[in-house]
Automatic annotation (TrEMBL):
Domain of life: Eukaryota
Protein name: LRRCT domain-containing protein
SMART domains: LRR_TYP (SM00369)
GO cellular component: plasma membrane
Keywords: Leucine-rich repeat, Repeat, Signal
Length: 244
């Protein structure tokens, strides 16, 4: 069903397909999924919704189908909101792709039930901040991709990330002290921090706040994101046009 012109998934669309394990709906124009659209897919393990036009994921959208779901691909949509209980039933999920959307924040308990999650891709959004509750239960997390957002600090969390081995965080408006602490923590834990863009000239952090402040209101007041993005724009302009 991929690469078509579907715009909506109605209630009980997949009645009679209770044994289906993989569903590929990528490359359509889907902008709405009704609350019971996947309710009969109780054996589903892989759901691909990439390259569609979704803006919102509603409460309990996966219903009973979420219990066995292991791979959920939602990259390259237009997501701006994921309601608080949208992922509540995804207790077996191992891979979550939310990259290349328009998300600015996550509800605090959005990932609470994802104790088996191994790979989280939230890069290339507009996420301003993360909280400890986003990570507290993700004890199996091994890869975290959060580059190209608006993150200025990494939150305190009860999670010790015992299995985390790879992380990306470039192209974020880090507070400089926060970035140094984050890099030192990753180094001490033997976590591979991907540096694909660092060259000694590209902006990596902003030093307008003393110390490392976990206060998004102060970050906004000090215009940390604006300062970083203006510096990055100037760097890219100089690099690719010679400053013209």
């Amino acid at each position: 069903m991929s690469q078509n012109t579907l715009t909506e998934i109605d209630d009980f669309t997949f009645v009679g397909l209770s044994a289906l394990k993989e569903l590929n709906l990528s490359g359509n124009r889907i902008n709405e999924i009704r609350s019971d659209a996947f309710s009969t897919l109780i054996s589903l393990e892989t759901l691909d919704l990439t390259h569609n036009s979704l803006e919102t994921l509603k409460e309990d959208i996966f219903g009973k189908s979420g219990a066995n779901l292991k791979r959920l691909y939602l990259k390259n949509n237009q997501l701006v909101q994921i309601e608080g209980n949208a992922f509540r039933t995804l207790v077996s999920l191992e891979i979550l792709q939310l990259d290349f959307n328009r998300l600015q924040f996550f509800e605090e308990h959005l990932f609470k039930t994802m104790r088996r999650l191994r790979v989280m891709q939230i890069n290339n959004n507009g996420i301003e901040y993360l909280t400890g509750k986003h990570f507290d239960n993700l004890l199996d997390l091994s890869e975290l991709y959060m580059h190209s957002n608006r993150i200025s600090y990494f939150p305190n969390t009860t999670n010790t990330f015992p299995r985390l081995s790879k992380i990306t965080a470039e192209d974020n408006p880090w507070q400089c002290v926060c970035l140094n602490r984050f890099l030192n923590w990753a180094s001490m834990r033997g976590i591979y921090y991907v540096k694909e863009k660092y060259n000694g000239k590209r902006p990596v952090c902003v030093a307008v706040i003393p110390g490392c402040v976990h206060d998004i209101a102060l970050v906004r007041e000090k215009q940390v994101v604006k300062i970083y993005e203006e510096a990055l724009f100037q760097y890219l302009r100089t690099t690719y046009t010679g400053g013209e």
